[in-house]
Design brief:
Layout (H helix, E strand, L loop, with lengths): L7 E3 L6 E3 L3 E6 L3 E2 L5 E3 L3 E4 L7 E6 L2 H9 L2 H6 L5 H13 L1
Antiparallel strand pairs: 1-2, 3-6, 3-7, 4-5
Helix pairs in contact: 1-3
Length: 99
């Protein structure tokens, strides 16, 4: 029987390729636009523990160290092409520690 391929993703903190299930997805929701296509508000950045939220995703290991590395090197901000407020990072750290 053919063995099933396990999808891998790169952690934005440590840069290692790991199985998708071992990582936490950080997602930027799609921007909301008006009828003319003008951006009304930028999408919100949040932690996606289920891996099913719509939007642009980046992956981080389930450790405080990797998230801190990604924050310090501004890798998540680069991945989403927008500045991310500190309170969102604080909430993400809290969810990783508790979850």
């Amino acid at each position: 029987m053919k063995q099933k391929k396990i999808p891998t993703r790169k952690c934005t903190g440590c840069g290692e390729m790991k199985p998708k299930r071992e990582l936490v997805r950080v997602v930027k929701a799609p921007d909301t636009k008006d009828e003319n296509g003008e951006i009304i508000s930028a999408g919100e950045v949040s932690l996606d523990l289920t891996g099913k939220k719509p939007g642009r995703g980046a992956y981080v290991c389930r450790s405080r160290e990797c998230l801190n590395k990604a924050i310090k090197a501004r890798r998540l901000e680069r991945a989403f092409s927008q500045a991310i407020p500190q309170e969102i990072f604080d909430k993400m750290l809290e969810e990783i520690e508790n979850g």
